[in-house]
């Protein structure tokens, strides 16, 4: 479990560049709920996830949230180092969803190498493109998909992530992922429950008809 | 009006790279309504706008449209060359809004130089980041801003672009920019008209109270 195992571009870097990264990387265990990045204020470095989960989301003036995307093992969090790209002018909040083990690469070091290394700059381009793809997917969902489809999709996705058909998640947390008030989530879950697709209990949602959820 | 005047990164390229770009660039005058890029199918090159206007939008399965962003003089259209980034996996339609004079750089040439040139790769990173910023702005608008605010903002922006307070645009075209059905646009414009902010006529909208529109 070394840095080089987590950076696919490693073999295209020079020895000097590898050394600079190895000498500056920090490994940290972050508690659940650690805010890595808050709006446009801080710029704490590139976070590479060894294990755990990170949520990237935006908040409205009124305090409503929506998940832009989530990152898991081996993913690289670019926007925690957004200051290294001048043209990034938007606010995101980045927070651990569970205990998360990470490598942190300092912005100045990464930026300096990227300025001279075509492979690292191209690698960063691909990272940025991946995130762009996720945001465009989200935009499509919000614009053209009705809420029942988005909720069914979220429950199935969450079930795959948690590796269980009984999800430990509150209606408010789902609302924060999908950008809807809690009441809207509760109403739709009750409808799903009436249709036999889920069973609701305090703090858990059990998926009882996966096929039907998939059909939505 | 040469290519080098439109590529801010020009002076950081090698002589060989400059020559390769100069020898492959094509200049074209595109008619209004030319579709440069359609979903993920084609990959016609990087378009640099000398003069004119390009609209980048998505279409729902049901045929509804929303403008993701618009490009004007000196802007560079990256997603018409999206195949050069493997991680871009989304569909956009790109179309000229008026007669548009462009430089076109072939994808293979640009991609080849970018693979070796850190300056060009970093320049591309900044382009991508700019577009990302525009998409995040749009996402925020759609998620948290009510339609009256979005419509007022669009009318003011369009007035600045057209350089006139009398806009030549149909309700359907506005709907396609903002992602709403024509009827919704008409209803809100009638409300604006009742409030003395606009005057409606066939094919035109005259802004009669800029201050009030700004206050929305």
TrEMBL record, chains A, B:
It holds the Pfam family HTH_Crp_2. CDD domains: CAP_ED (cd00038). InterPro entries: cNMP-bd_dom, cNMP-bd_dom_sf, Env_Response_Regulators, HTH_CRP, RmlC-like_jellyroll, WH-like_DNA-bd_sf, WH_DNA-bd_sf. Residues 145-211 form the HTH crp-type domain. One of its GO terms (molecular function) is DNA binding. It comes from the Bacteria. GO terms for cellular component: cytosol. Transmembrane segments: none annotated. Keywords: DNA-binding, Transcription, Transcription regulation. SMART domains: HTH_CRP. This is Crp/Fnr family transcriptional regulator. It comes from Candidatus Scatosoma pullistercoris.
């Amino acid at each position: 479990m070394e840095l080089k195992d987590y950076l696919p571009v490693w073999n295209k870097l020079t020895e000097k560049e590898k050394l600079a990264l190895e000498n500056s990387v920090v490994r940290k265990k972050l508690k659940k709920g650690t805010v890595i990045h808050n709006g446009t204020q801080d710029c704490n470095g590139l976070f590479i996830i060894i294990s755990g989960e990170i949520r990237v989301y935006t908040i409205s003036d009124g305090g409503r949230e929506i998940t832009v995307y989530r990152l898991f093992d081996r993913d690289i969090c670019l926007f925690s180092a957004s200051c290294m790209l001048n043209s990034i002018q938007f606010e995101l909040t980045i927070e651990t969803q569970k205990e998360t083990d990470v490598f942190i690469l300092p912005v100045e070091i990464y930026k300096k190498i990227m300025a001279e290394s075509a492979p690292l700059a191209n690698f960063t381009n691909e990272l940025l493109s991946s995130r762009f793809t996720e945001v465009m997917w989200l935009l499509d969902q919000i614009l053209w998909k009705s809420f029942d489809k988005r909720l069914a999709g979220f429950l199935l996705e969450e079930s795959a992530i948690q590796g269980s058909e009984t999800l430990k998640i509150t209606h408010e947390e789902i609302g924060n992922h999908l950008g809807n008030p809690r009441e809207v989530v509760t109403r739709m879950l009750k409808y799903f429950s009436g249709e036999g697709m889920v069973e609701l209990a305090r703090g858990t949602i059990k998926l009882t008809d996966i096929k039907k959820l998939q059909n939505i």
